[in-house]
Amino acid sequence: MFNRCVDTIIRQVGDIGRMVDEFSGFARMPKPAKEQHDLADAIRESVFLISVGQPHIRFTTDLPDGQMIAWFDDRLISQALTNLVKNAAEAIEGVPADQLVDPHVAVSARRCGDDLVVEIVDNGIGLPTTDRHRLLEPYMTTREKGTGLGLAIVRKIVEEHDGRIDLMDAPSVATGGRGAMIRLTLPVGTGRA
After folding, report:
1. Beta bridge partners of 181
2. Dihedral pair phi/psi, residue 129, rounded to 5°
């Protein structure tokens, strides 16, 4: 009994520590230091980082030939992209094993006028149909161990870049499939504040 209590306390302290770290990161979010970067590189790095730890999930990227140059803070946008790809992988882990068919995260990007549009699509558990937009608010989560800060941080980063984030169903939901699609729209920018 003593060992179980100690294990529970250690686990709870770890969870609280993680929440404090995430809250601190959210509260101290730095202003973006925008420079010219290749968004395609940031996407490739984020997908690679998460795919290494998730060998049972198929990750694909659909990026234009050549670079996708824009003005953004590489560290912050990479953090946002990594968080979204990680969320997609975790959504797949939420599907019962007997219902999981071809676990897949697809990340695509394209230029649309003066914007760059990134879409992250998974075939995981999907997003709630009601109050979906509230997932972008701090402390709002549907996960048992979630802190509710991940998407709020992504939203803050994207808004600091004059962009937009949209939470949608994966296209396959229309034909009876499952999953979510997160769309980021970021302006190419000019380097001016």
Report:
1. 121, 168
2. -85, -30
Using DSSP, state whether 111 is helix, strand or coil. Answer: strand
User: Which domain, by its residues, includes 172?
Assistant: 31-187
> pTM higher than 0.85, yes or no?
no
* CATH code, domain carrying 73: 3.30.565.10
Output the CA angle 182-184-190, nearest 5 degrees.
175
**Structurally, how many domains does the chain consist of?**
1
In a domain, 18, yes or no: no
* Residue 179 located in a structural domain: yes
What lies within 8 Å, CB to CB, of 155 at 6+ separation is 136, 165
CA distance 30 to 41: 22
**pLDDT digit string (tens) for the chain, length 193 residues:** 778 777 777 877 776 666 556 655 555 567 788 999 999 999 999 999 999 989 999 999 999 998 999 999 999 999 999 999 999 999 999 888 888 889 999 999 999 999 999 999 999 998 888 776 766 665 555 555 554 567 888 898 999 999 999 999 999 999 999 999 999 999 997 655 5
**Alpha carbon distance 15, 147 (integer Å):** 9
